[in-house]
Amino acid sequence: MEFFILFVKVFIVFNIIMGLSSMCTWIERKGSALIQDRIGANRAGSYFYTDKLLLKPIFFFVRIFGILGVINTLVCDAVKALLKEDYVPSGTSNFMHCLAPFMAVLPVFLAFSVIPFAPDFTLAGYYIRPQIATVNAGVLFIFAMGSVSVYGVALAGWAGNNKFSLLGGLRAAAQMISYELAMGLTLVTMILIYGTLDLYEIIESQKKYWGIIFQFPAFIVLFIVGMAETKRGPFDLPEAESELVAGYFTEYSGMKFLLFWMGEFAEIALFAILLTILFLGGWHLPFIELPEGTWLSALIGHLVFMGKVVFFCVLQIVIRWTLPRFKFDQLMSLGWKVLLPFSLFNLVLTAAFILWMGK
Amino acid sequence: MIFQQVLFYLLSFLIIASALGVVIFPCAIKSTLCLIVTLIGVAAIFAMLNAHFLVATQVIVYAGAIVVLVLFVVMLLNLKKEKLRDLISFRSILGVILLTSLLLAFFPLVIKHFPSEEFQYVHGNAEDLGRLLFGKFLFAFEIASFLIIAALLGAIALAQGYKTSSLEKREAGSGSN
Amino acid sequence: MVPISAYLILSFVLFSIGAIGVLVRKNAIVVFMCIELMLNAVNISFVAFSQLHGNLDGQIAVFFVMVVAAAEAAVGLAIIIAMFRNAETTETTDFGELKF
After folding, report:
1. Does a structural domain hold residue A341?
2. Residue burial A290-306, b: 16+ Cβ < 10 Å; e: rest
3. Domain that residue B73 falls in
């Protein structure tokens, strides 16, 4: 029975990951279109029409989704990517070219296994915690997965067998490891405040006051670092579409390219979840106290959690399409000279404050 | 119980196979990839031994930082492959024979000395490790931080010293011409 | 239950593979990676012994071994890069003499 519950949990979490990254893809396409004052994709599926009266409602909904661009993004892009020719450039090892998208996506998916999606509840006599792996050091595990995801980028740059993608890959890897330092220091600051590394306990200790009230600067720093780690937003020089051809993506087409995209959106969702758990109180609403332990409160908590995550995803996508991108030396100097001393100063100040207050 | 034993043998097979891969592959990048697999396998062994904080530290420090640095160096230097035939020489065969005999001589000693003692469960979580680190081992902790600063300065000096020396060589070369 | 001698044998085998790698390979970077293998073997045996004695001192030792390995990685790789730029090769057999 325990294994069955585990399988159900894994299935649900996998669906959540896929759902979040698909939703982010769609928001990216349609949202970017709206921000740039154009309409975006709205053709596929918008011409469905039928004369049979019974099928009319179904076709109506399909038309609505088509006009919103959902069918175009989710169905047509996927089919196109699956049917494209899958080539490997000559001169590089086939194995490494195929391994790189795998290594870019796997750590992100693994990091979702320590995230609690809803409060505990008891269902038919079983005490269920909606977290696949209840490890003691959950925050550190997410940080470790962020460290390992550098390899996918570096290998993708190398497997392209030309100087442009190698340069793009090494730049991206250097950017990611530079911003990991500021992320680590910010995480340590939040761990100091909550006193535990376990993600479930962190959410539980935010019942009264959300974390953002205590540490607003750390929130800003972690938000910026999250956008830099996923190479999004104003930090997307490695995958810049107008320079360096496509950076380290250059030699990838079809499903491998889509795997990179999916990993990137899953990482956006991961950072949104991290921000929600550490700063926004997880599933706690500000003034409402829910009864614990029932499956209804778990469902409500889950919906609140997902709402906050979606808010952060949309915020990251909107910022990406609003701000111009940094140059590489500005990027690195921001990471090393601004964010690192600032988060270090923040950490020392927080530690001194906690010692002084004595709690 | 059986699950633990099966898991241990699978993990040790993975670790030893990828360690052999580090040694055997002539291409430097494949060796690096095998090293990553070995390090993550060792992290899994730490998890089996209840050292949870060390699992995360191993992945972050070793597999996430040190091997990334090695990968950078390998990619930037753009090395050619070694030839497998060069690996087999008198020196290497002698080394393999010596080490294998040393290894085989130690097996019965180890098995005799630690027959099958029961483990005492110690949970290596961050709080207890932190208490020890800042209590009993505080001096070693401070020395370690000095070591890291010294290594940092050393690496910067090595990277920069080259630039000035090559500049002098070029100027000397153009001066003599 | 896995006996502790199994962990120790694993640590031994990993250490000897690393030592064989240091002796056999000529590329300086691969030699460095085999040194990391040896350090990891020692880490496994430290953690196994800490579990045996019920003490956390072994895990602190692993922590310090990792610190030393990180410092050694930085300096060692900087030396390798300097070597390469002076002599255009990283084979250890080409650095037998003390002057170029």
Report:
1. yes
2. beeeeeebbebbbebbb
3. 1-77
Contacts of A12-19 with CB under 8 Å at 24 or more apart are: A12/A130, A13/A112, A13/A113, A13/A115, A13/A117, A13/A132, A16/A112, A16/A117, A17/A109, A17/A112, A17/A266, A17/A269
Q: Determine contact: B104 vs chain C, CB below 8 A.
A: no
Instruction: Report if residue B68 sits inside a domain.
Output: yes
Question: Among B22, B61, B133, whose Cβ lies nearest the Cβ of C37?
Answer: B22
Query: How many domains does the structure of chain C reveal?
Result: 1
Whether residue A107 contacts residue A149, with contact meaning beta carbons closer than 8 Å, is answered with yes
Q: Which residues of A touch B57 (CB under 8 A)?
A: 140
Cross-strand partners of A128? A121
The answer to whether the Cβ–Cβ distance between C20 and B95 falls below 8 Å is yes
Tokens found for residue B175: 């001066």
Cβ pair A260, A249 in contact under 8 A: yes
- Which of B29, B52, B68 is opposite residue A137, by nearest beta carbon? B52
- The answer to whether residue C99 sits within a structural domain is no
> What is the extent of the structural domain holding A226?
92-358
Domain residues for the domain of C63 are 4-94
Please determine, for residue C95, whether its predicted confidence score (pLDDT) is greater than 80: no
Domain assignment present for residue A203? The answer is yes
pLDDT by residue (tens digit) across B82-136?
A: 666 666 677 778 878 888 888 888 777 777 776 666 666 777 778 888 888 888 9
Q: List all chains that touch chain B, counting a touch as 3 or more CB pairs closer than 8 Å.
A: A, C
Contact list in C for residue B151 (CB cut-off 8 A) is 70-72, 74-75
Angle, helices A150-159 vs B67-77, to 10°: value is: 10
Distance in angstroms (rounded) separating the CA atoms of residues A198 and A184: 16
> For residues C66 and C44, what is the distance between their CA atoms, to the nearest angstrom?
12
Query: Which of A46-60, B30-44, C21-35 is modeled with the greatest confidence?
Result: B30-44
Contact B62, C40 (CB under 8 A): yes
Residue A122, H or E segment: strand A121-123
- Rounded distance between C-alpha atoms, residue A187 and residue A181, angstroms: 10
Nearest C-alpha neighbor of A222 from the set A175, A265, A275? A275
- A170 at interface of B, judged by CB pairs closer than 8 A: yes
Three-state secondary structure string covering A146-179? HHHCHHHHHHHHHHCCCHHHHHHHHHHHHHHHHH
Exposed/middle/buried for residue A28 (C-beta within 10 Å: 0-12, 13-18, 19+)? buried
One-letter amino acid identity for A24? Answer: C
- The answer to whether residue B163 is domain-embedded is no
Residue A47 lies in a domain: no
Dmax (CA) of chain C: 57
CA of B53: which chain A residue's CA is closest? A137
Entry pTM? 0.87
Residue B20: inside a domain: yes
CA dist B174 and B169 (Å) reads: 9
Total domain count for chain B?
Answer: 1
Task: Please list every residue in chain C whose beta carbon sits closer than 8 Å to the beta carbon of residue B148.
Answer: 67, 70-71
Instruction: Tell me the pLDDT tens digit for each residue of A296-351.
Output: 888 888 898 999 999 999 999 999 888 888 888 888 898 889 999 999 999 999 99
What ipTM describes this predicted complex?
0.89
Residue B25 lies in a domain: yes
Question: In the 8-state DSSP scheme, what is residue C95?
Answer: G
Q: How many domains does chain A divide into?
A: 1
